[in-house]
């Protein structure tokens, strides 16, 4: 009866704040380092806010992902179309009607949905938004490497209780744009240069991972790959052309991006944006490449959320997507993190391979009630993505076997339970590793990551017409692994097979076949007496530092070409 009373008073609710609830009480709202407030936003200024509407049949969607991704299933490779997904998850007519009436009454305008109808983006004035979202108070902030401007609320927002069954969260209030953890390391010192390389280039990658000059796209398929960028960073076509001129002479390649989705700024190129494009297009050579450039087209938009909306609104997408984005799990609200996970599930159901960087903080570290714990990263910890860790050469100047890059992100989720596809591999690691950290530092029953790895140390990148050496991070390993999978998709498509889709069930079933196992080294963690800066250590088989290992292209192709 109380809910009915609240609903009848819907128009008054966003004014009085009665009968309200907070959708994201656990969302971190502290200002990230490097950001400062410029004060309240004028009440007549326009905002673009995104409303995440409650979906239907999420459990059924999860079952379908398993069916289309498991090689033992009769439905393996029979991916859903965007329209199939929309039919499944589309909010109920009651949800659509209730939310639209609520927004209309508040004065929202220019509302746009997506094909799946589970997101609604609307424009409101600041005054209208603050009335609608009780408690919100919009401020303008400036920060980040590019001195970007964003509009966010330092205070939590509330919604009418009548909307609790209909709205998951409202995007554009709290989460700040991510920052890059990419770094330039000092050049290692060495005497003499005979038979040595001076940093990682496409030819070094191709030599280490056994890619020949013939291992390139055929140019005859509809195969494509993509990278996504959220850092207010851009690549320049001229940098890509110069990079290929310097480093792409030994293999057929494309020297320009096929399609940019979103806005490409006119400012200086960013090293991370340049790196993503240059190494995706040199590892996945001669394959059509898209770039999602999503800085957030308006100050109140969240770049990563905008990318998810694009995926839900385009029926023909590249088969492989590489993303170098992550947040600490604990900084995100529970409702947001689970909803984003469902969006990643939707992509898996459609046969998209999503690769996320595992992060550059090793096991991470934070203090909970005065005790240290490791700090997992998301979306790296999502059960529906393939997460890529990082390695270094044993000898930094020779193409040798690989060891752990100490920055390689990895660990166990505190949010998502361990998916069945990895239970055996994780149990094997936990029972056999001689260097396990204390059990209080990690959730041994959580989703464990990364799944795979590639070189992440000492890359050459061309940015703003300048070749830059010794660039390091899992932002480098992720596009390299993505490019390798695109080459395998090329062979599968030429053989009449579907693309690989969500790789993890198959990857774990095959126990790392086709990958170089990385068995030496540990990654970083808490600098305290108990663990002394050491997180997990790699060993034979899967481990939460380098996953199953790094690609050996001919062997991996043989493993993944059929069925």
TrEMBL record:
Q: Which residues form the signal peptide?
A: 1-21
Q: Which GO terms describe its molecular function?
A: metal ion binding; serine-type endopeptidase activity; tripeptidyl-peptidase activity
Enumerate the cofactors the protein uses: Ca(2+)
Q: Name one GO biological process term.
A: central nervous system development
CDD domains given for it? Peptidases_S53, Pro-peptidase_S53
Report the residue ranges that make up the Peptidase S53 domain in this protein: 199-563
Q: Where in the cell is it found?
A: Lysosome
Could you give the subunit structure recorded for this chain?
Monomer. Interacts with CLN5. Interacts with CLN3.
- Name the job this protein performs: Lysosomal serine protease with tripeptidyl-peptidase I activity. May act as a non-specific lysosomal peptidase which generates tripeptides from the breakdown products produced by lysosomal proteinases. Requires substrates with an unsubstituted N-terminus.
Protein name per Swiss-Prot or TrEMBL: Tripeptidyl-peptidase 1
């Amino acid at each position: 009866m109380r809910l009915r009373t609240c609903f009848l008073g819907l128009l008054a609710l966003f004014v009085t704040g009665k009968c309200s609830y907070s959708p994201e009480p656990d969302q971190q709202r502290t200002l990230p380092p490097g950001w400062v407030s410029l004060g309240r936003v004028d009440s007549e200024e326009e905002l673009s806010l995104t409303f995440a509407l409650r979906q239907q049949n999420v459990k059924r969607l999860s079952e379908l992902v398993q069916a289309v991704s498991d090689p033992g299933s009769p439905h393996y490779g029979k991916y859903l179309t965007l329209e199939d997904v929309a039919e499944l998850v589309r909010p109920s007519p009651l949800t659509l009607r209730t939310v639209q009436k609520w927004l209309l009454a508040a004065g929202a305008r220019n509302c746009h949905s997506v094909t799946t109808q589970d997101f609604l983006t609307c424009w409101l004035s600041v005054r209208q938004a603050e009335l609608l979202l009780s408690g919100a108070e919009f401020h303008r902030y400036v920060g980040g490497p590019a001195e970007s401007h964003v509009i966010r609320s330092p205070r939590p927002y509330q919604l009418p209780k009548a909307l609790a069954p209909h709205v998951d969260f409202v995007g554009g209030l709290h989460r700040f744009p991510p920052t890059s953890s990419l770094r330039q390391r000092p050049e290692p010192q060495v005497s003499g240069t005979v038979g040595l390389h001076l940093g990682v280039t496409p030819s070094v990658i191709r030599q280490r991972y056994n890619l020949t000059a013939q291992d390139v796209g055929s140019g005859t398929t509809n195969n494509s790959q993509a990278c996504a960028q959220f850092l207010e960073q851009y690549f320049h076509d001229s940098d890509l052309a110069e990079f290929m001129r310097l480093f792409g002479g030994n293999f057929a390649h494309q020297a320009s991006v096929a399609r940019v989705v979103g806005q490409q700024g006119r400012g200086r190129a960013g090293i991370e944006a340049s790196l993503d494009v240059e190494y995706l297009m040199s590892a996945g050579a001669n394959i059509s490449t898209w770039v999602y450039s999503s800085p957030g087209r308006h100050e109140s938009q969240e770049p990563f959320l905008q990318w998810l909306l694009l995926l839900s609104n385009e029926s023909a997408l590249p088969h492989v997507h590489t993303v170098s984005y992550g947040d600490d799990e604990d900084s995100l609200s529970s409702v947001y993190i689970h909803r984003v996970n469902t969006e990643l599930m939707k992509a898996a159901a459609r046969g998209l391979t999503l690769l996320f960087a595992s992060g550059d903080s090793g096991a991470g570290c934070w203090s909970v009630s005065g005790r240290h714990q490791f700090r997992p990263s998301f979306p790296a910890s999502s059960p529906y993505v393939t997460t890529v860790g990082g390695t270094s050469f044993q000898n930094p100047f020779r193409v040798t076997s690989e060891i752990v890059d100490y920055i390689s992100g990895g660990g166990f989720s505190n949010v998502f339970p361990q998916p069945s596809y990895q239970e055996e591999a994780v149990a094997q690691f936990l029972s056999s590793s001689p260097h396990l950290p204390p059990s209080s530092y990690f959730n041994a029953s959580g989703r464990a990551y990364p799944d795979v790895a590639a070189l992440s140390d000492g890359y050459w990148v061309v940015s703003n017409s300048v070749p830059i050496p010794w660039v390091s991070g899992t932002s480098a390993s992720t596009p390299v692994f993505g490019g390798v999978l695109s080459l395998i998709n090329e062979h599968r498509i030429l053989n009449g097979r579907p693309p690989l889709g969500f790789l993890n069930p198959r990857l774990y079933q095959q126990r790392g076949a086709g990958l170089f196992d990385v068995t030496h080294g540990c990654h970083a963690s808490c600098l305290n007496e108990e663990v002394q800066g050491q997180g997990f250590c790699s060993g034979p088989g899967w481990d939460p530092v380098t996953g199953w290992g790094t690609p050996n292209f001919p062997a991996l192709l043989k493993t993944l070409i059929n069925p």
